[in-house]
Design a protein that fits this description.
With about 425 residues, the chain is of the alpha+beta class. It has 14 helices and 13 strands. Strands 6, 7, 8, 9, 10, 11, 12 and 13 form an 8-stranded antiparallel β-sheet that branches. Strands 1, 2, 3, 4 and 5 form a 5-stranded mixed β-sheet that branches. A hairpin with a 2-residue loop joins strand 3 and strand 4. Helix 1 packs antiparallel against helix 2, helix 2 (about 25-40) crosses helix 14 (about 365-395) and helix 4 crosses helix 14 (about 365-395). The chain is globular.
Length: about 425
């Protein structure tokens, strides 16, 4: 990116924010939003209220009030951003997909380690950013990707059950009294439902095994009418075929995915197919893949429809992944793999949001402040995504590693072995 490009971002950001003016309150509030979003785009090492205010020569208290007290509509802003993405970056219903995999939604969570016990939602829990149990907050996100465009489109704080059971603690943190406990998969389902309501039409929804391992979550996605392909744990239970009868002596029980993939009826006699996964920033990887039709086990009972169960083994590291999908029976394995492995696109977005935008830098103690900080990060990230698209159009040779659907993009089939 040239100095001319960088200089051109200032009026571009102003126009971007102006287009959402109806959701950002009066002129004084919009001025603070402009300062805050500029701070998020700056090279400040810490992008919380105080450093942003001091760098802009603004009153720290004014920016604090922007997040916690001033009157502006963050929910309306989120919905408006989603509608804009539909209109400007996604294909219209019935329009041929320029990208073979189509519009992909990604569900994932991220976490930020915190000290003390005042940050809304903080508790000792698994912190993905450090890979261990520690004091942290967890947020759940939905992203969308199509061709080279990708962006976060929804964000929510996971509020643990212990918080909900402590009304006084919730009151001190400004957590709404009518907020009920929602598990992370429940939050994700609500986010998908909101996106659908704003016109987002996903060809696929992807997720990791923390979500895929819960059959009720998969059933919830089906009720919303979306096609999914996501990881499941190796212990995920399925039936090779629906049981015709039950025997007291030999009850028909579901088997774990790892065992079905080795000798289950739907996998028996099938050969491994070799696929090469193209990466943008590291070397390609090769996977041996098998797929079969199975019936999901829901509370020990056989579900009444078939799903795809896919097993993929990395030829270099030996890593094994299992995926489940409700895609139609005639869907090509190549297309399902491309959708499945595109999920790393949201990890790319998390890296950009955390290192460049300051997604995890909020230091306040108010629920509303944290939610608004995440919403302004989304607004800024959308601006970055749109400018990346614009600059890519002006200069096709720009590094493909910036923007797009992450580092994983594309699957090519090789000869079956």
């Amino acid at each position: 990116m040239t100095e001319e490009h960088i200089a051109g971002l200032v009026p571009g950001l102003r126009n971007h924010l102006h287009s959402y003016g109806r959701y950002l309150g009066g002129g004084a509030v919009r001025k603070h939003v402009d300062r805050y979003c500029r701070g998020l785009l700056s090279d400040l090492p810490r992008k919380s209220v105080e450093p942003i205010a001091l760098a802009a020569g603004a009153c720290v208290r004014s920016l604090q009030l922007l997040l916690t007290q001033h009157d502006w509509d963050e929910a309306g802003l989120r919905d408006a951003m989603q509608r804009r993405i539909v209109q400007e970056h996604l294909p219209a219903p019935g329009e041929p997909r320029a990208d073979a995999v189509g519009v992909v939604g990604w569900i994932d969570e991220t976490s930020v380690a915190k000290k003390g016990d005042k940050t809304p939602g903080v508790q000792r829990q698994y912190c993905g950013s450090t890979g261990k149990i520690e004091n942290c907050v967890v947020t759940v996100h939905l992203a969308v990707g199509y061709e080279s465009f990708s962006c976060l489109i929804d964000s929510d704080l996971y509020v643990p059950q212990k918080w909900i059971e402590d009304p006084e603690r919730c009151r001190e943190a400004g957590i709404p009294p009518d907020l009920c406990f929602r598990s992370k998969p429940q939050i994700a389902l609500d986010q998908v439902k909101r996106a659908l309501g704003n016109g987002v039409r996903f060809d696929w929804i992807g997720f990791d095994e923390g979500y895929g391992g819960k059959p009720w979550f998969l059933a919830g996605l089906e009720e919303l009418g979306v096609t999914f392909i996501g990881e499941v744990p190796k212990s995920f239970r399925c039936f090779s075929a629906p049981p015709r009868y039950r025997s007291l002596q030999r009850p028909y029980v579901a088997k774990e995915a790892q065992h079905l993939a080795k000798g289950g009826k739907s996998f028996r006699g099938k050969k491994w197919k070799r696929y090469r996964l193209r990466h943008k920033t590291v070397g390609d990887s090769t996977w041996l893949v098998k797929a079969g039709r199975v019936y999901m086990s829901v509370e020990g009972q056989c579900h009444d429809r078939e799903y795809w169960l896919i097993v993929a083994k990395n030829t270099t590291t030996g890593e094994i992944k299992y995926f489940i999908s409700n895609a139609p029976v005639r869907t090509s394995l190549r297309r399902m793999l491309e959708a499945a492995f595109s999920r790393w696109g949201i990890e790319h977005l998390f890296r950009v949001a955390k290192t460049e935008i300051g997604l995890g830098h909020y230091e306040g103690r108010r629920y509303r402040g944290l939610m608004r900080h995440m919403m302004l990060c989304q607004l800024t990230l959308l601006f970055v995504a749109e400018q990346t698209e614009r600059l890519r159009g002006e200069k096709p040779t720009v590094d493909e590693g910036t923007g797009g659907q992450g580092t994983e993009r594309g699957v090519s089939a090789m000869d079956a072995t």
